[in-house]
């Protein structure tokens, strides 16, 4: 089934169902990859592991912080086993995207493109040999089996939609802070950290998307764009680092030309991400909960027979939200709502200045 809650079922049922489905999907990809492209199987398995971690962040207040931390660390270890394999493939994909964008202006010589493409393929093969792919995949499958047994023991009975709200708001608040830090620092680490929080929030909105409100549908689409731009920027950073660390990647002057184009492309992605992020993270957490009132009302009454009034929240959560600061802009200042820029617009002044530099 889709990565969405079914509002006709109780929250505990849906949480367990989705966790088990995604774990089983990851195991299936890693054990049956011989019947399909292995790189694609690893990519799909990593996505399922990330979906599991995203859902666990949502229900962390229900399962307890200690349980969440242990489970998240366990799953992070699984992701790390697969990430180096995936990164070696992802940088080839983003390399081809840069080449395609530069092609109309003839910015890259054909011999340089062929040289870099060959070196990246060699890097991918060397990575796979060093890691011992089959052993790594087998270890990941065993670890996922452990997680599956843990999920069966989670104490979630009686939880309703209100039990998900604190986890959702905790992640959303962290995303606002991460965006602010990325806008200030303008470095790869900050943007990558923001991307992780965007991905979590995107997963949460996807989970609620089956409730089919216009707010959730639009937000899910925008978060997907934002996560994609930030993901491409991260892959460009890894690509540039890989080329910089390899003396065999070609003539230094030609390579510097490619790196400059890749850096400019990454800068434009960051600018677009900050523009869209200002819109998506402009709502205060309490305002976000207000937009989710329809989703809350659509959920079945939990087994304790109590449903919170849609106009009020849990007292402690409400107290936290009352103290929220004004809307946060990427530069750390208060912002006012402005018309959104079209996603595919021309590079901003900041991008053009960076390119000239």
Can you describe what's shown?
It is built from 14 helices and no strands. The protein has 357 residues and is mostly helical. The C terminus is likely disordered. The longest helix is centred in the N-terminal third of the chain and has 38 residues. It has a single domain, classed as CHAD domain.
**Structural domain count:** 1
Count of β-strands: 0
User: Which regions are unreliable across 5 or more consecutive residues at pLDDT < 50?
Assistant: 303-357
How large, in whole angstroms, is the Cα Rg?
22 Å
Order of helices and strands: HHHHHHHHHHHHHH
CATH C-level class is Mainly Alpha
The averaged pLDDT comes out at: 82
Structural class: mainly alpha
The CATH H-level homologous superfamily: CHAD domain
**Helix percentage range:** over 70%
Our count of helices gives 14
State the CATH topology: CHAD domain
Beginning-to-end CA distance, first to last residue = 49 Å
Global shape: globular
Strand content: under 5%
Looking at the overall shape, the CATH architecture is Alpha solenoid
Q: Tell me the major beta sheet.
A: none
């Amino acid at each position: 089934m889709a990565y969405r809650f079914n509002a006709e079922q109780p929250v505990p049922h849906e949480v367990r169902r989705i966790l088990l489905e995604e774990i089983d999907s990851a195991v299936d990809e890693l054990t049956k990859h011989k019947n399909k492209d292995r790189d694609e199987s690893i990519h799909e398995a990593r996505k399922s592991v990330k979906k599991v971690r995203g859902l666990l962040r949502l229900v962390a207040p229900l399962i307890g912080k200690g349980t969440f931390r242990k489970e998240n660390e366990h799953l992070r270890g699984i992701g790390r086993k697969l990430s180096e394999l995936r990164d070696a493939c992802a940088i080839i994909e983003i390399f081809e995207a840069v080449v395609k964008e530069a092609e109309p202006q003839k910015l890259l010589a054909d011999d340089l493109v062929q040289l870099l493409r060959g070196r990246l393929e060699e890097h991918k093969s060397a990575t796979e040999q060093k890691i011992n792919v089959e052993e790594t995949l087998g270890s990941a499958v065993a670890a996922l089996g452990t997680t599956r047994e843990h999920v069966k023991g989670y104490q979630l009975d009686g939880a309703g939609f209100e039990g998900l709200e604190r986890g959702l708001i905790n992640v959303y608040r962290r995303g606002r802070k991460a965006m602010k830090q990325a806008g200030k620092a303008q470095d790869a680490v900050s943007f990558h950290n923001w991307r992780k929080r965007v991905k979590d929030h995107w997963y949460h909105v996807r989970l609620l998307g089956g409730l089919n409100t216009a707010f959730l549908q639009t937000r899910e689409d925008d978060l997907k764009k934002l996560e994609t731009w930030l993901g491409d920027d991260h892959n460009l950073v890894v690509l540039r680092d890989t080329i910089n660390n390899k003396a065999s990647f070609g003539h230094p002057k030609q390579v510097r030309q490619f790196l400059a184009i890749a850096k400019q492309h990454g800068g434009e992605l960051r600018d677009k991400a900050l523009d869209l992020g200002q819109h998506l993270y402009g709502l205060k957490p309490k305002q976000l909960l207000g937009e989710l009132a329809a989703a809350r009302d659509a959920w079945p009454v939990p087994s304790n027979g109590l449903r919170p009034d849609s106009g009020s929240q849990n007292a402690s959560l409400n107290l936290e939200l009352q103290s929220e600061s004004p809307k946060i802009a990427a530069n750390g200042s208060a912002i006012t709502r402005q018309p959104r820029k079209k996603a595919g617009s021309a590079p901003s002044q900041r991008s053009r200045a960076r390119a000239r530099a």
